Every structure is written in structure tokens, then in C-alpha cells.
């Protein structure tokens, strides 16, 4: 019966190859049994009976789903929250970076076909975001297929879970909200992209009768020496924001990591600012050509400016280190004395 | 009204789904093939789709509750299922659980019903 062949094929092609032969045999046997049961009672043409049987068995995809036992999905509920968070962060970062890069490019080097560039911009953002979406989805689909669990270990804890282990609700100070780390993440990724693609655009721009003129600030060769270190610090910063997001509160380890990162940032900043070779040699001569005496004045106060910048960043890092340290220690003390807090066992 | 009927139908389906395995295991005292189970369950007032029963039998076999073998009968092969030793043990336990549950729930259901709908006066 051709119709039976088509039905059986439609079911088994949706099943794992290892089960196909067996289930095919089973289905054919079932259909034969149903047919035998009907030809006894039901008169009429055999093909009508087969149609009737197949209608009763239901759509082949439903039948195949019953045999598979579980709904198939690309990214299942266990992974979905993580997946969606990653998609949002990456999409936002890419859209932001592209927008900024395009804006800078348009400002510095207005193309003759401005309208076309502007029209193409949304398309390029959409295609970049869709591309990233596709890659992330692919990675998560593979994780799903392999049965990998990327949750934060809560399932493992659940085995020997004890209500007393519940951390106290963090005080407003110790708690890290979603909104606290998202801007840091987005900004970090954006900064990383700009650092590696657009550092040559940093400089002084003159708009005069001769049109746009640009004096680059950085010496590209010298900057290339620093770039890996900059990348490292920014990447660690992104990692820190990710940890903040995952942990949801300031732990001692996180505060220690933050402190180390602040020290690293400060050291790098001091070294950068004090590297005379970083500013291209052409910068000062060209600036002197264009604006004359003002540059001399600038060069005289330059050491002072460097010093001020270092002190400013140093104070910033120091305050951040101490503030997060205090939050972490307070959180730690709260956890250590958790039972003595209102709602605990003792009063 | 239609919505209410749908809710009832869905809840009844949940109840049946929970008891289905017990019904199937109880029918497997002697070896049976799939379609004869469909028929006898239907006669007993428990209509079940072959598309539900056949995969269920495979799953129970995979769990080790059932054993199956193909037999050639009336010139066509049929897969016969029977309880394994584990299956028989599980069925005993499951039956006892069911009877305890029936007693408990009957006591609840037969108690003075509290079905007065709350209505605004």
C-alpha cells in the first residue's frame, strides 16, 4: 500500500536512525492489526479503510514526537535565561559600537554619497546583529544538543540544600543590580573594539578654509606596544562585570579581584601617561605650526597635566577599591552572622 | 461555558495520564501485543491512541519494566510485551500505592463538599 509506505516514512524520517527499523516494523504491524480489526466490521474499499486508519493514527509529526518522548528545541528552558542575556548584551554592544564607529567615520571623513551611507547604516547594523544572534544561537544549540548545563551551579547545590544556607537579603549597598554591570559590559566591549580599530582617529582636528585637517596624537608603532596591555586590562574589566552579573553581590574574592584590577589599571595608566614616545613626534611640531605660542604654553604645563591626570585616576581607583571592599566586608559579615538576623531562628 | 469545559477536559486528561501506566501494566499479566491492548483498554472504558500507547510501551521496556519479543503470527510479525521481574515488582508496589491513594482521596472527596461558590451578594 503506497499510502502506508508514505505514512511510515513520514514518521521514521523524524526519528533517530538507530530506532527507525524497529519503529517501522512496529508501525506496519499496528496498521495491519487495525486493518484486520476493521475489515471484519467495516465494509468498503480497502484504500478508504487505510485512509481512515491513518487519520486515526494522527499526523506523522505528532506520532514521531510521541516516539521521541520529548519536545525538541534549539535552546531549552534550562539554558534559555543565560542565552537571552548573552544575546541582549552582545546585540546592544555591536549596535552601539557600529553606531559610534559610523558616526566617527562620518564626522572625520564625510563621504560624497552621504545619503547612501546613511541608508546602508541600518542594514549593516541589522546584518551584524543578526549574524551575532546566529552565532550565539549556534553555540547554545550545540550546548543544548550535548546536554551541557551552563547554569551557575544551582542544581549541584540543590542536592544538599539546606534552608540555613540561604544568604541574607543583601543590603542595598552589597547588592549588585543587573543595571550596574550592563553599562560596564557594553562600554567595555565598545571600548575594546574602538581601541583595536580606531586609535589612529585620536588627535586634533582643524576645520579651516583648506577643509578638514587632522593631526594624529598617537605614535602608531609605540601604541602597538601598549595595545596588548590595554586589551588585557579592558578584557579583565569585562570579566569583572560578568562576574558581578553572575554573583549578584560583592564577595570578598570579587572585591579582591576588583582591587587588583584597579592597581593594574593605575600602573598601566601611569606608565602610559609618562611614556613620551607615545605622543607622535609630528604632533608637537605640527601643532606648533598651526597654533604657534599656545603649544609652547601647553608643553610647559604638560608635566603638571600628566601629574594631575595620574592623581585623578589614582583617587578614582582608590575610592572604588575601598568602596567595593567595604561592601564586600559588610556582605561577608552579614553572611557570617546570618542566623542572628531578623527572620532567623533566634531573636 | 466552553472555557470551563475545556478546563475540565484538560484536568481529566491530567488525571488519566497519571493512571495510564498502572492500567497498562495491569493488562500485561500475560503477553499482549500492542493493538490488543488498545482494544482491551477501550473495552474497559479507557480509550487510548495507539500513537500514545506504542511509544509508552517502548519507554517502559527501556526502563526495564517490560520485555518484548517479535512473534510471527497469521503471517505477520507482532511485538508481544510482558512484565519483566522488575515490572511485576513495580506493579505490586504501584497497585498498593494506588489503593492507598484511592482511600485517601475518596475520604476527601466523599467528605461534606465545600462547593458553595463565592458570590457577591
Summarize the structure.
The complex is a heterodimer of chains A (347) and B (121). With 347 residues, chain A is mainly alpha-helical. Helices cover 73% and strands 3% of the residues of chain A.
Topology readout:
The complex is a heterodimer of chains A (347) and B (121).
Chain A (H helix, E strand, L loop, with lengths): L1 H11 L4 H25 L4 H12 L2 H9 L8 H32 L5 H33 L7 H6 L18 H20 L5 E6 L2 E6 L3 H28 L4 H22 L7 H11 L1 H44 L11
Helix pairs in contact in A: 1-2, 1-4, 2-3, 5-6, 5-8, 8-9, 9-10, 10-12, 11-12
Chain B lengths: L1 H25 L5 E2 H10 L6 H13 L3 E8 L2 E8 L1 H26 L11
Antiparallel strand pairs in B: 1-3, 2-3
Explain this structure to me?
The complex is a heterodimer of chains A (347) and B (121). Chain A has helices at residues 2-12, 17-41, 46-57, 60-68, 77-108, 114-146, 154-159, 178-197, 220-247, 252-273, 281-291, 293-336; strands spanning 203-208, 211-216. Chain A is mainly alpha-helical and 347 residues long. In chain A, strands 1-2 form a two-stranded antiparallel ribbon. The longest helix of chain A has 44 residues, at 293-336. Chain A starts with a helix and ends in an 11-residue tail after the last helix. Chain B has one domain (20-109): Arc Repressor Mutant, subunit A. Chain B contains four helices and three strands; from the N terminus they run αβααββα. Chain B has a three-stranded antiparallel beta sheet with strand order 1-3-2. Chain A binds chain B through residues 25-27, 29-30, 32-34, 36-37, 56-58, 62-63, 66-67, 69, and chain B through 33-36, 39, 49-52, 54-55, 58-59, 70, 74, 76-79.
Amino acid at each position: 500500500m503506497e499510502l502506508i509506505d508514505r505514512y511510515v516514512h513520514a514518521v521514521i524520517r523524524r526519528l533517530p536512525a538507530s530506532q527507525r527499523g524497529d519503529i517501522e516494523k512496529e508501525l506496519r504491524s499496528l496498521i495491519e492489526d487495525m486493518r484486520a480489526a476493521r475489515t471484519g466490521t467495516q465494509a468498503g474499499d480497502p484504500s478508504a479503510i487505510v485512509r481512515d486508519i491513518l487519520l486515526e493514527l494522527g499526523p506523522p509529526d505528532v506520532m514521531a514526537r510521541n516516539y521521541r518522548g520529548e519536545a525538541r528545541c534549539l535552546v531549552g528552558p534550562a539554558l534559555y535565561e543565560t542565552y537571552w542575556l548573552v544575546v541582549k548584551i552582545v546585540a546592544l554592544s555591536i549596535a552601539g559600537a557600529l553606531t559610534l564607529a559610523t558616526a566617527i567615520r562620518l564626522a572625520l571623513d564625510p563621504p560624497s554619497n552621504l545619503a547612501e551611507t546613511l541608508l546602508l547604516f541600518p542594514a549593516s547594523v541589522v546584518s551584524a546583529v543578526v549574524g551575532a544572534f546566529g552565532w550565539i544561537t549556534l553555540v547554545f544549540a550545540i550546548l543544548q544538543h550535548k546536554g551541557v548545563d551552563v547554569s551557575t551551579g544551582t542544581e549541584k547545590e540543590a542536592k544538599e540544600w539546606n534552608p540555613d544556607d540561604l544568604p541574607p537579603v543583601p543590603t542595598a549597598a552589597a547588592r549588585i543590580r543587573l543595571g550596574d554591570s550592563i553599562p560596564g559590559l557594553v562600554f567595555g566591549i565598545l571600548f575594546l573594539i574602538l581601541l583595536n580599530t580606531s586609535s589612529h582617529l585620536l588627535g586634533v582636528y582643524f576645520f579651516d578654509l583648506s577643509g578638514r585637517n587632522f593631526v594624529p596624537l598617537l605614535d602608531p608603532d609605540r601604541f602597538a606596544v601598549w595595545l596588548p596591555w590595554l586589551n588585557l586590562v579592558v578584557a579583565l574589566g569585562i570579566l569583572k562585570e560578568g562576574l558581578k552579573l553572575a554573583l549578584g553581590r560583592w564577595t570578598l574574592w570579587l572585591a579582591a579581584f576588583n582591587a587588583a584590577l584597579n592597581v593594574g589599571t593605575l600602573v598601566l595608566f601611569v606608565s602610559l601617561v609618562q611614556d613620551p614616545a607615545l605622543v607622535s613626534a609630528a604632533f608637537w611640531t605640527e601643532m606648533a605650526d598651526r597654533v604657534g605660542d599656545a603649544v609652547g604654553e601647553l608643553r610647559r604645563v604638560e608635566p603638571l597635566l600628566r601629574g594631575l591626570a595620574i592623581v585623578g585616576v589614582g583617587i578614582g581607583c582608590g575610592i572604588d577599591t575601598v568602596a567595593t571592599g567595604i561592601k564586600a566586608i559588610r556582605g561577608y559579615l552579614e553572611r557570617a552572622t546570618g542566623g542572628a538576623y531578623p527572620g532567623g531562628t533566634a531573636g | 461555558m466552553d472555557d470551563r469545559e475545556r478546563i475540565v477536559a484538560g484536568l481529566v486528561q491530567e488525571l488519566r495520564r497519571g493512571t495510564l501506566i498502572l492500567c497498562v501494566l495491569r493488562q500485561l499479566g500475560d503477553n499482549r501485543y500492542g493493538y490488543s491492548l488498545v482494544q482491551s483498554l477501550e473495552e474497559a472504558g479507557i480509550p487510548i491512541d495507539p500513537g500514545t500507547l506504542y511509544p509508552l510501551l517502548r519507554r517502559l521496556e527501556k526502563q526495564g519494566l517490560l520485555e518484548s519479543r517479535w512473534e510471527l503470527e497469521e503471517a505477520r510479525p507482532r511485538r508481544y510485551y510482558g512484565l519483566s521481574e522488575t515490572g511485576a515488582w513495580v506493579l505490586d508496589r504501584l497497585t498498593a500505592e494506588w489503593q492507598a491513594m484511592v482511600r485517601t482521596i475518596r475520604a476527601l472527596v466523599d467528605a461534606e463538599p465545600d462547593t458553595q461558590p463565592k458570590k457577591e451578594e
